[in-house]
């Protein structure tokens, strides 16, 4: 007949065209085209042979079943630690007024972003690990890439603002207030939204990563539009923040060394101030170092993919930095509690209060005779009239000792004669 047979299958399309990995972000299979009607050759009733099944991104398991189970356990642990630790920081900040400082507001902002990563980002990866493949649709992939990028940028920019706050406080002797902190946090979120919103508007896009368990911006694309975004993204969200933090902490160390060399300033107040600033600077530096250690491997792998070395990045090589970066959400609260005395004391106070209330509920009985409820004891003395020896009193199971060595003078504003009193610390000892 000279024409093509009606049953000849159409040429196989690429995987990207078949599964819709275009900029529209469709992850569902492209609809099959209807076969043309017969042309009288007698082949109209014969079904066309099916095209060979091609590999679909995210469908074929890239790891063994045991590896997926291990990854699921690992990401679940990261998510639970990140959720509990960061939620604890938010509760402490809410319940204790002495923690509500402009500096701690930045720590709360980091904890909030890490908490959101633990809730949204980790959960999608965990479900995919259980199913041994990416189980979400295009919207889920876009949300995973957008949220992970957004909260990661918020964290590193907040650390940058924290370093700058330390810099102007130590080097320039300026004290910031809450309005400054709130403005900085607002700019941080707007800056992060600008970078993570660009792929939603066509400047690069969010796509499935090599390991098939999460999404991010398209590092592999060679389109000039996409590569320009990747280059500026690294400059604006990694190189510039790290450079600012290095500059700030370099000047902080120089200022502290200069103060130590001035003998006229070696008073008790200045020494205490230096110790405090040094401790806070150590805490912030440790937070920054931990964050960079967690995220640098992921950044290196992404750059390798961007600049044509994707053959070196196997799914195994890609999954390790990705999970290591997610683990950064669980570290910062631990640093706060171990490095900050205020956070430690507030945590102990919160735990002891809960324990005492539980014990009081369990032992609640009517008070009769000598079994009377213990009331708080207030010692009020005039200035200079300090106890000359230790005074003890006991309850049913605990012996308390009051010493005058730990006394701290405070002002009793409730008295008309403004008498100074000694605030005596009460220490429980095992009886």
From TrEMBL:
Annotated membrane-spanning segments are: 70-94, 106-126, 146-164, 184-203, 229-250, 284-305, 317-339
Q: Which residues form the G-protein coupled receptors family 1 profile domain?
A: 85-336
What InterPro entries does this protein map onto? GPCR_opsins, GPCR_Rhodpsn, GPCR_Rhodpsn_7TM, Opsin, Retinal_BS
Q: GO terms for CC?
A: cytoplasm; plasma membrane
User: Could you tell me the Gene Ontology terms of the biological process aspect for this record?
Assistant: cellular response to UV-A; keratinocyte differentiation; light absorption; negative regulation of apoptotic process; negative regulation of melanin biosynthetic process; phototransduction; positive regulation of cellular respiration; positive regulation of D-glucose import
Q: From the UniProt record, which GO molecular function terms apply?
A: 11-cis retinal binding; all-trans retinal binding; G protein-coupled receptor activity; photoreceptor activity
Q: Where is this region: Disordered?
A: 1-57, 408-431
Which superkingdom heads the taxonomic lineage of this protein's source? Eukaryota
Keyword field: Cell membrane, Chromophore, Cytoplasm, Disulfide bond, G-protein coupled receptor, Glycoprotein, Lipoprotein, Membrane, Palmitate, Photoreceptor protein, Receptor, Retinal protein, Sensory transduction, Transducer, Transmembrane, Transmembrane helix
* Quaternary structure, from the entry: Interacts with MC1R; the interaction results in a decrease in MC1R-mediated cAMP signaling and ultimately a decrease in melanin production in melanocytes.
Per the record, the similarity remark reads: Belongs to the G-protein coupled receptor 1 family. Opsin subfamily.
Protein name in UniProt:
Opsin-3
| Species this chain originates from | Taeniopygia guttata
């Amino acid at each position: 007949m000279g024409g093509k047979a009606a049953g000849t299958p159409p040429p196989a399309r690429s995987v990207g065209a078949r599964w819709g990995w275009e900029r529209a972000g469709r992850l569902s299979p492209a609809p099959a085209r209807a076969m043309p009607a017969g042309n009288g050759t007698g082949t109209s009733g014969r079904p066309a042979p099916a095209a060979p099944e091609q590999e679909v991104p995210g469908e074929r398991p890239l790891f063994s079943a045991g590896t997926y189970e291990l990854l699921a356990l690992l990401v679940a642990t990261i998510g639970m630690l990140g959720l509990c630790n960061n939620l604890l920081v938010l509760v402490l900040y809410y319940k204790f007024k002495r923690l509500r400082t402009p500096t701690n507001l930045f720590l709360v902002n980091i904890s909030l972003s890490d908490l959101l990563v633990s809730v949204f980002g980790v959960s999608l990866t965990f479900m995919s690990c259980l199913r041994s493949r990416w189980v979400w649709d295009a919207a889920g992939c876009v949300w995973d890439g957008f949220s992970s990028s957004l909260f990661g940028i918020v964290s590193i920019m907040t650390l940058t603002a924290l370093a700058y706050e330390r810099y102007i406080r130590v080097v320039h002797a300026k004290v910031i207030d809450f309005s400054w902190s709130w403005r900085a946090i607002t700019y941080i979120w707007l800056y992060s939204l600008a970078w993570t919103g660009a792929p939603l508007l066509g400047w690069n896009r969010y796509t499935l990563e090599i390991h098939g368990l999460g999404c991010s911006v398209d590092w592999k694309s060679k389109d000039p539009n996409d590569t320009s975004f990747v280059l500026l993204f690294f400059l604006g969200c990694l190189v510039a923040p790290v450079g600012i933090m290095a500059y700030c902490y370099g000047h902080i160390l120089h200022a502290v060394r200069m103060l130590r060399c001035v003998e006229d300033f070696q008073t008790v107040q200045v020494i205490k101030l230096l110790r405090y600033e040094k401790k806070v600077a150590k805490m912030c530096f440790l937070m920054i170092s931990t964050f960079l250690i967690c995220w640098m491997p992921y950044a290196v792998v992404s750059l390798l993919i961007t600049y044509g070395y994707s053959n070196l990045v196997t799914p195994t090589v890609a999954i390790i930095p990705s999970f290591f970066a997610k683990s950064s959400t669980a570290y910062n609260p631990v640093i706060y509690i171990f490095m900050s005395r205020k956070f430690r004391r507030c945590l102990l106070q919160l735990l002891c209060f809960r324990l005492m209330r539980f014990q009081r509920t369990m032992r609640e009985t009517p008070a009769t005779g000598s079994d009377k409820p213990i009331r708080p004891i207030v010692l009020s003395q005039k200035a200079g009239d300090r106890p000359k020896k230790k005074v003890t009193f006991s309850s049913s199971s605990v012996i308390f000792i009051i010493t005058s060595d730990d006394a701290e003078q405070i002002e009793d504003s409730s008295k008309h004669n403004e008498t100074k009193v000694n605030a005596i610390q009460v220490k429980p000892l095992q009886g």
